[in-house]
Automatic annotation (TrEMBL):
InterPro entries: Glyco_trans_9, LPS_LOS_Heptosyltrfase
Any one GO BP annotation for this protein: lipopolysaccharide core region biosynthetic process
Annotated GO MF terms: ADP-heptose-lipopolysaccharide heptosyltransferase activity
Any GO CC annotation of this UniProt entry: cytosol
SUPFAM superfamilies: UDP-Glycosyltransferase/glycogen phosphorylase
High-level lineage: Bacteria, Pseudomonadati, Pseudomonadota, Gammaproteobacteria, Oceanospirillales
Protein name: Lipopolysaccharide heptosyltransferase family protein
Coiled coil: none
Keywords: Glycosyltransferase, Transferase
């Protein structure tokens, strides 16, 4: 084993090259790696889509683009040459695929660690049994356990587990985001700001727009009764803009102060804007997990099937800032209509009870 020091830190390549939410749930593991002694140089292999947020991550030193399974042979070869020349000491694959395992082996990375699942594990010389299919733990905890196993294999001093926020923006940045949105939309700073993301990104079972409208109207009425009339800010992913605008129009027709978040120039700007939320409501999508990394209060709506439970895809914000709702045990696992929206509205309203907008942005 190489003897590492501050002058010769270990070079680690971390792979999480699938969806946005999955990548955000890797941030606790990245924070744990970066907190080790000596602090390693951490590179991430990510697709072009999540690269803007990878570049924002305070626990990442270098971002390497993955052309993906469909990338042409030339780009695949360029990636292999880049990895060979980088001199990585270790590869940590948080979600194992045969292509990535073979890539790490061909790149000659001496320590290659991944979950002990699927035949792709044959390319790794360190394997950690996790049985993720049982969904017994949150995804970000599974990722943390892999990071800790890697640190042990490298004989690095393992730090205490990091705590939220995993994306620690400054108070000045949060204030600036709130001021910019207030100026653009004419929002009053003293109101609670509830961000609502009704889209699913095509991957998550979610409430319908009509259900979100009922939920918002109920939450709004409960907060108004307490003298805290909220402002609703509707967000959208690519291709979901018209649905968000339609929902905003429905809420305005019902008497709610509803606004569409203006289009952002890119994913990084959109992500930063979520710091302005007093609470973020969504299905188990990428934006929900961005808000959680920022340690914003969240309310997530999930199916109850084993692979997508609220526990497995739990947000990584502080425990007292996360709410989760799913169909009851006697309903079909994906029957989102079985969720008790009255109970959800009551719990969301209570979440905002202790402190509205002027937290000073927890």
């Amino acid at each position: 084993m190489t003897s590492f020091s501050a002058q010769r830190p270990p070079r680690i390549l971390v792979v999480r090259n699938d969806k946005l939410g999955d990548f955000m749930l890797a941030w606790p593991a990245l924070a744990a790696l970066k907190a080790a002694t000596p602090a390693p140089h951490v590179s991430v292999l990510v697709p072009d889509y999540t690269a803007p947020l990878a570049r924002c991550c305070p626990w990442v030193d270098e971002v390497i683009l993955d052309p993906g399974d469909s990338g042409d042979r030339g780009h695949q070869q360029e990636l292999l040459v880049q990895l060979k020349s980088a001199g990585f000491d270790a590869l940590l694959t948080l979600f194992s695929t045969p292509r990535v395992g073979w890539l790490g082996w061909r790149a000659g990375i001496p320590l290659r660690l991944a979950p002990a699942t699927k035949w792709a594990q044959l390319f790794y010389n360190r394997r950690v049994p996790q049985r993720r299919s049982r969904s017994a733990k949150p995804e970000y905890v599974y990722n943390l356990e892999l990071a800790e196993a890697l640190l042990a294999s490298l004989d690095l001093e393992r730090p205490p587990r990091p705590a939220p926020p995993y994306w620690p923006l400054s108070g000045a940045e949060r204030t600036a985001q709130r001021a910019a949105i207030a100026a653009t939309l004419g929002l009053e700073a003293e109101r609670p700001w509830l961000f609502l993301h009704a889209g699913s990104g095509g991957s998550a079972v979610n409430l319908t727009s009509a259900a979100y409208a009922r939920l918002a109207c109920d939450v709004d009425a409960r907060l108004r009764a307490r003298g805290k009339a909220p402002a609703w800010v509707l967000t959208a992913g690519p291709g979901e803009e018209s649905h968000a605008e339609a929902l905003a129009a429905t809420l305005r027709k019902a008497g709610l102060a509803a606004h569409r978040l203006p289009p952002s120039p890119g994913l990084e700007a959109f992500a930063h804007s979520l710091a302005a939320a007093d609470l973020f409501i969504a299905g188990s999508t990428g934006p929900l997990h961005i808000a959680a990394c920022l340690n914003r209060p969240t309310a997530g709506f999930y199916p109850s099937r084993r692979s997508a439970t609220p526990l497995r895809w739990q947000t990584c914000n502080s425990e007292d800032r996360r709410l989760a709702f799913c169909p009851p045990g006697d309903a079909h696992e994906a029957d989102m209509t079985a969720i008790d929206l009255n109970d959800a509205a009551a719990r969301i309203a209570r979440q905002l009870q202790p402190s509205p907008t002027s937290e000073p942005h927890l």
